[in-house]
Amino acid sequence: MGAVSAPGLTTSEALASFRAARREPGRLTLFESSLDLPVFEVARFDAAHPYSDGVRTLELALHAVREALTDAALDSGALSSARVGVCLGTTVASQLNDLAFYRSYKTTGSAPMAPVRRYLKGNLADAVAAHFGIQALTVTVTNACSSGADAIAIGAQWINAGLCDLVLAGGADELNLVPLSGFHALGLGCPFPCTPFDKHRQGLNLGEGAGIVVLEAPAHAVARGHTPALALYGHGTACDAHHLTAPHPEGRGLRAALYQALALAGVRPEEIAFVNAHGTGTQENDLIEGNTLAAIFGPSLPVLSTKGYTGHTLGAAGGLEAVFTGLALREGWLPPSIGFSEQDERIPITPLREHTEIHGRFALSTSLAFGGNNTALLLGFTKGAAQ
Amino acid sequence: MTPFLNGLGIVAATGRGINSLRSALQSGWRPPVTITLPDKCELPVYPLPSGALEDKSLGRKVRRSDRLSKMAVFAAADALDDAQLPPDLDRRRIGLIVTSAFGSHTTTFQFLDEILTYGDAAVSPTVFSHSVQNAAAAYVASTLDLQGPTLTLTQVHFAFHHALLLARQWLATGQCDHVLVGGMDELGSVMHFICRSLLRSPMDGKLRPFAFAKYPAAIPGEGSAFFLLSGTPQPGSYARLEEITTAPWSAPAKAPDLHILEADGTLADESGYANFTSVGAQFAAYAPLFGSMPGGTPLQAAAAALMLKELVCFATPVTDGASALPLCRATAPQPLASVHLTRLHCNGTAGQIQLLAPF
User: Fold this and answer.
1) Nearest to A97 among B108, B116, B162 (CB)
2) Any idea what the CATH number is for the domain that residue B76 is in?
3) Checking CA distances to B91, which of A7, A141, B85, B118 falls within 20 to 30 Å?
4) Chain B: closest CA distance from residue A28 (Å)
5) Could you read off the pLDDT of A40-67 as tens digits, one per residue?
6) CA distance linking residue B167 with residue B228, whole number of Å
7) What value of ipTM does the predicted structure carry?
């Protein structure tokens, strides 16, 4: 697993931030905006490497991929000798959204083609594969906020279908003016550090980062003598088919996605140790998600939202949160769901208020997206792995 | 698992619907529309014909959507309708995969325009919502009440091929009973400018897929095509999806009855297509009807599916440069059993789809 986000440039740094219940939202520095909204930038990150052509999202993705490969005890040689897939989710990196390009076109009728060429050769999954010099099955998922989780589910399907031995899967996104401005226009931008599931929540803060997992076919792992501690046991995806921006009022799609993941894994709801919820801090998301989780798992389920530490990283969120779910299982503890303070009486679950030891083999990570998409990933210890 | 293509919907320069597609394939090449850009330069394009997106019944459901989403909804709805599935179908078991090379660029540029015009604190929330890449899929899902897994894949190369691979997997594992798979791309004023800047227009308005040119000319097109894939055939099935690959090129194991080369001028160098001319009983290329689109495979696949269903081979619309090749030169009934589609990527890989007659 590899992760880069506001809480840290690596999974170790993120864990240190979680352990200290520390978050550092701040003012925007990456580009100009009139909006005075706190954001979760990845500090101390240099994206000026020539191979990424200045595309910060790609650099964030590569940074997390490198950590994930190291964590999986793989080197680039292993990638060239295996059947590899690269499946990544993003939002910002999939759009022709260069403001300087458009400003030039609008004011002069002409514009330099460099941003377009960057787009043409900068498809996130293709670019990661090209960076490592591998012929890979490559897909870039643009399912808005569930993109990273969907990419991991697709990776698992490729492995199960025998198409790949290894899949680099997850999501990456950089801060960008389009979503910042757009979420503000929708009235979803929180003017203070976000407070997921709290009674007085006022919306989300945007963040950036990348979260990557290396999925490996069991036979391939055995052949190289590797024993992974964690596995992706189940995944589920379902659409609300309800509204472009609002979740289904009864959580129809989320409920279906969760039951699919449980069924695929052969796991009962009471076996779930905790859920790393999507928990954006918006009124509707947290209300619907909290009620759906309570209906399936009961109100005493340990729940947290790591978006209080990272902000909403959009296409990266599903990848980052899958990594954080895996880390929590591996570490045996959960940080407080930072930002949560006062119970909303309409939401039956109570997110964690303090550092909590966890015991159990399985956990879930949920992602809800614009367009009504819902995805659940079920992770757990492999049999025999230390718990 | 070899899924069946049981429904087809298309909105393209050929018009909306299967009858328009058939008619265009029968009529052969027609010249593009020439538009004048703000700088007075001219650009030949293959846009949707006027009226292609007018539909009172469907239009009411997508009246707030952008044009790209309408294109997707119309083609997807037609494909579902064409498949004539029972009305009591379990909508939770229908998946949806929407692909695009460029996604909602027109709406994204509209949003950027709002930022520049009104400032980033005073933009339209509706325009933002529609600029999100999966807005089209959201409209398709909500309009058709599709509650299964829903995916949007946006990438310049082979997005449709990867979507077919996934759809096959969803059907094989029993995750879905049916999967609606399609692709779309649109033109717009900024895209016109981009195409004019990056592509070379042919002097006579003709795409020449069989020129295998090192510096090919292109005529931008737009359109959307969707297929309903199912695990079992129906009386109206179009084709069986035998194989999908995206890999360094290798010849199909068996020469198909018809080999469609997707050369359309969007590659910097199309000479690589010449390597494929030994693989197939006869060849065709239908890009001159649809225009040049990096994500144009669904449109070409629609032509292939129609031919396999109706056992007719439609004449390739432009034959220039192919005097020695066995082309499908005249529209005529043929006992087509297999049609192969090949699209090249500048990185040396090829996306290939093998369709077989359904029965």
Assistant:
1) B108
2) 3.40.47.10
3) A141
4) 14
5) 999 988 766 656 677 899 999 999 999 9
6) 10
7) 0.97
Q: Tell me the per-residue pLDDT of B66-115, one tens digit each, with 9 for 90 and over.
A: 999 999 999 999 999 999 999 899 999 999 999 999 999 999 999 999 99
Shortest distance, CA B303 to any CA of chain A (angstroms): 25
Handedness of CA B64, B65, B66, B70 (dihedral sign): negative
pLDDT in tens, B278-288: 887 899 999 99
CB < 8 Å from B in window 109-168 of A: 109-111, 113, 116, 119-120, 123, 125-126, 130, 135, 137-144, 150, 154, 157-158, 160-161, 163
Residue with tokens 């990845």: A42
Q: Is A28 on the interface with B (CB under 8 A)?
A: no
For B273, which DSSP code?
G
Q: Where are the beta strands (DSSP E) in chain A?
A: 2-5, 84-89, 136-141, 166-173, 209-216, 230-239, 272-276, 303-304, 333-334, 356-357, 362-368, 373-381
Segment A299-334, tens digit of pLDDT:
999 999 999 999 999 999 999 999 999 999 999 999
A178 — contact with chain B (CB < 8 Å)?
A: yes
How big is the CA angle at B219 (ends B218 and B220), to the nearest 5 degrees? 110
CA–CA distance, B325 with B208 (Å, rounded to integer): 14
A110 neighbourhood in chain B, CB within 8 Å:
39, 193
Q: Which residues of A are catalytic, by number?
A: 145, 278, 312
Q: What is the pLDDT of residues A146-197, one digit of tens each?
A: 999 999 999 999 999 999 999 999 999 999 999 999 999 999 999 999 999 9
- For B224, residues 6+ apart whose C-beta sits below 8 A from its C-beta are B10, B11, B12, B71, B72, B74, B75, B182, B183, B184, B185, B298
Report residues of chain B scoring pLDDT below 50. Answer: none
Pairing label, strands A362-368, A272-276: parallel
Q: Which fold has domain A2-381?
A: Peroxisomal Thiolase; Chain A, domain 1 (3.40.47)
List beta partners, residue B45.
Answer: B33
pLDDT at residue A271 greater than cutoff 70: yes
Q: What pLDDT does residue A51 have? A: 60
Q: What is the number of CB-based contacts under 8 A between chain A and chain B?
A: 201
pLDDT for A347 beyond 70:
yes
Structural domain containing residue B136: 4-356
A257: closest chain B residue by CA: B149
For chain A positions 280-309, those within 8 Å of chain B (CB to CB) are: none
The pLDDT score that the predictor gives to residue B60 is: 83
- CA-closest candidate to residue B147, choices B203, B217, B96, B204: B96
Closest residue of A to B96, CA-based?
A239
Is residue A108 within 8 angstroms of chain B, CB to CB?
no
Report pLDDT for B234.
Answer: 94
Per CB-CB distance under 8 Å, the chain A contacts of B147 are: 238-241, 252-253, 256
Total number of residues shown for chain B:
359
Single-letter residue type at B245: T
The alpha carbon of A171 is separated from its chain's Cα centroid by a whole number of angstroms, namely 6
Report percent pLDDT > 90 for chain A: 91
Give the mutation candidate from A34, A95, A138 for the B interface (greatest B CB count, under 10 A).
A95
Contact flag B108-A96 (C-beta cutoff 8 Å): yes
Contact state of B152 with A142 under an 8 Å Cβ cutoff: yes
